[in-house]
Amino acid sequence: MSPSGGGEPKGKLADEIKASFGSFAKFKEEFTNVAVGHFGSGWVWLVKDTSSGKLKVLQTHDAGCPLTEQNLKPVITCDV
Hints:
This protein is α+β, with helices and mostly antiparallel strands. It has one domain: minor pseudopilin epsh fold (3-Layer(bab) Sandwich). The protein has a 3-stranded antiparallel sheet. A hairpin with a 4-residue loop joins strand 1 and strand 2.
């Protein structure tokens, strides 16, 4: 997710992103929009919701972390 990054994910992660967001481009757009729209310090996360099996983008403030939520497993994060 950087200008010189390694490109789109492959394998299971790519399949789950497509199933959850429709495409990698749509995931990237949502992740970016949440990060840009976040006010103050915090984090933007790609998490797996184990109750639905879907990936989600969410934000937390300050030291917030999805590890405190029972059904959310972090996949990647961005410090904002």
